[in-house]
Amino acid sequence: MPLARSLSVTSLSGLEEWDEEFDLEDAVLFEIAWEVANKVGGIYTVIQTKARLTAEEWGENYFLVGPYVESNVRTQVELIEPPTPILRRTIDKMNSRGCKIYFGRWLIEGSPYVILIDVGFTAWSLDTWKSELWDISGIGVPWFDREANDAVLFGFLTAWLLGEVRDEEPHIVAHFHEWLAGLGLVLCRQRQLPVATIFTTHATLLGRYLCAGNVDFYNKLSEFNVDKEAGDRQIYHRYCIERAAAHCAHVFSTVSKITAIEAEHLLKRKPDIITPNGLNVKKFSAMHEFQNLHAQSKNRIQEFVRGHFYGHLDFNLDKCLFLFIAGRYEFSNKGADLFLESLARLNYLLRVSHSDLTVIAFFIMPARTNNFNVETLKGQAVRKQLWDTAQTVKERFGKKLYESLLVGQLPDVSKMLDKEDFTIMKRAIFATQRQCQPPICTHNMLEDASDPILNSVRRIGLFNSSSDRVKIIFHPEFLSSTSPLLPMDYEDFVRGCHLGVFPSYYEPWGYTPAECTVMGIPSISTNLSGFGCFMEEHIADPSAYGIYILDRRFRGVDESCNQLTSFLFQFCKQSRRQRIIQRNRTERLSDLLDWRYLGRYYISARHMALAKAFPDIYQYELNEPTSTSGFRYPRPASVPPSPALSRHSSPHHSEAEDNDEDESYDEDLEAEKDRVNIRQPFVVPFKNKSSLFVTNGDGEGDATEKN
C-alpha cells in the first residue's frame, strides 16, 4: 500500500520531520466515549478540543460515537442524513431491529460527524446482554448500578455498530475512552472483529476511589490487593470492565507518566504509549494583547472585591494579588487542604514582614448550596449604589464647572459642592458601615457544619479580618457571565488572576494549570499531576517560566506545605514588572500544550494499532533523529544559573528596573532564543515491536517493554 500521509502535523521550528507516512484513504476512525456531545468531566474537553485536528487528518473518515442525550443534542448537534451509503444501511438496519441511532454534526471546531446511540431505547435487551457478558467474561453487573448498566448497553450497541460497518469498510480503527466505553472494545476482540483497537484511560477507577479514602496511594501502589480493594468499594464489576479493556486493546495508552505507573500496578498492563491532553491555543499577534486582557479582567475582579469587602476595604487594591484554585470539590485530591494550610502560614509571614501586600485567595469548587448569601449580594448592591452616587455628584459638579467656564470665570471650589451634595455623600458613606466581617462563602451552604473548606478556615482562623494579609473567598458554584454576583466566565476570571494554585495529590493530567499556561498566568502544580511531570520533562527550569512544581511524591505533607508557602511568599515579593515578565514567559509555553504538537501522540497510537491489527498491510517504523540536542526549553537568560538564586526561580530583578526599554529588549531576545531552541521530544517506535522508545529532554531514551 502506498504511504501518502505524513505523521508530522506541526510547524514548530527545530522539530524533526518523520519520514514514514501512512495512507489513510482505506481506513476509518471511530472514536467512542460517553462524553461525546455529553459534558460530564474532563474527557469532554479532550475530545472537543482535539476534534478539529483529527478531522483535518481523517477528513470524512472520522466519526465520533457517544450516547444520545436529548437536551444536549438540541443545543450542540445538527442532525443530518449519513453521507455514505454504508452508514445509511448500517443505521437503518440497526434501527429496524429495535435500536435508535442518530447521525449528525457536532457543532464545535472541525464539525466532526457524530453517531449518537439512545441506550435507553434498547433497555429491553439489558438482561440478555448482561447474561451474555457473564457467559463470555465472568463479569456480573448488579441491577442497582445504573452507570454500569448504561455501560453494558452502550458497549453492546457500539460493538454491534462496528460489526455491521466492518463488512463494508476494509480497515477500521476504534479508539475507546475510559471504562464506560471499554466494554465495546472487549466485545470487538471476543467476536474477533477485524478492528484496530485503542483504549485510553484518563484516570483509573480504583485510583480515584483509593485516593479519596486518604491512603498513602503512591508509596503503596505495589502492595494493594486490587481485587479486594475494588470489591470493598463495590466497584469490582466496573474494575473488571476497565481491566479487560486495557488487556484486550491492541494499544493501551494513558495521559501521563504518573498515570502510566498507576495503570501498570492497578490494571496490570504497562501502557504502550502516553497521549498527553492538549488545548486549541489562540496565539496573539502582539505580546501586549494578552497582557491587556489580564488588566481588563483584573479590573472586573477588583469591582467584585470592592463590593465583597465593603466597610472593611482597608487595603490597597493596586497592591493586591489574586490567587485561585478551581475544579471538582475533592478536598484532598485537589490539594485544597494543603492550599489552606499554606495560606495560614503565608499570612503569618506577610504580617511579621510588615508587608503592605494583600492576597485574596478564591476557591471555585461547586458544592451543595441554597442560593446566594444575602450579605454577599448586599455588598454588590452597596458598591453599585456608591458608584451611582458618585456619578450623580460628578454630573452636578460638572454642570456647575461648565456654567462657570462659559461666563469666563474660574470656579470657586468652595461653592462647587453645596449642602445637598455633602448630604448625599454622607448618606452613601454611612451605607458602607458594616458590623460583621466580610463573608468567607458567597452562598448559603446546605452542609455548612461539615463542609471541609469552611471547617479548615475555622481551624486556621482566617476570617477576613482587618489584621489578616490573606483573605479567602469561597465561591461554591461554577462561574458564569450571567451571575448577579461575579458576572465572569471562567476563562475571563483566570485571565484576571495572578496565580493559579493546584497542589493536587491525585491529578492524572490537570487541565486547570494547562489553561492558566496558555493564557499566560503562572501556576503551581505538583509532581503527582500529569501536567507537572510533562512540564518538568520539557523545561529546564519550569519555575523560571511561571510553572512551579510542588514535590508531593517524595516529601511529607508538612514539607510540601512549607515548600508551597515558600513558592507563594516568593511570588508575593515579586515586583509588578517581574510579574509582567513572568507572564510573558508563561504564555510562550503555550506551543507545548497545543494539539498541533500533542496530537501527534494520538496519531502515533492509531498507527501503532493499525500496524498490530493489519501487519501485512501497515508497517510502522521510524528513522532515528539525526540530532538529540536542544530538546528542552532553556533557562531564561535573565535568571541566574546559581542554584541558590534560582531555587524559586522568580524572574531576576534588574538593578535598572525602571529602564523599560532595556528590559523589553532582554525579553524579546529571550523569546527569540526560545523559538530557536524549542525541540520537543517525540515518540520513536522501532522495528522491534516489543519496545517503545521515547526520547527525553536530555537526549537519552527509555525503552518501555510492551505487555
Helix content: 40-55%
- Total beta strand runs: 22
What ranges have pLDDT less than 50 throughout 5 or more consecutive residues? 1-20, 622-631, 640-665, 679-707
Classify the fold: give the CATH topology of the largest domain: Rossmann fold
Described by strand count, sense and barrel closure, the largest sheet is:
9 strands, mixed
Mean pLDDT: 85
Strand content: 5-15%
What order do the strands of the largest sheet run in, or round the barrel if closed? 5-6-7-4-3-8-9-10-11
Which class do the helix and strand fractions yield?
alpha/beta
Question: Span between N and C termini?
Answer: 29 Å
Architecture overview:
- The protein has 707 residues and is of the alpha/beta class.
- It has 3 domains: 27-274, Glycogen Phosphorylase B (Rossmann fold); 287-373 and 439-593, Rossmann fold; 375-436.
- It is 44% helix and 14% strand.
- The chain contains 23 helices and 22 strands.
- The strands form 5 sheets. A 9-stranded mixed beta sheet has the order 5-6-7-4-3-8-9-10-11, sandwiched between helices. A 6-stranded parallel beta sheet has the order 16-13-12-17-18-19, with helices on both faces.
- Helix 6 links the parallel strand 8 (171-177) and strand 9 (195-201).
- Helix 12 crosses helix 20 (557-572) and helix 13 packs antiparallel against helix 15 (419-431).
- The longest helix is centred in the middle third of the chain and has 33 residues, at 374-406.
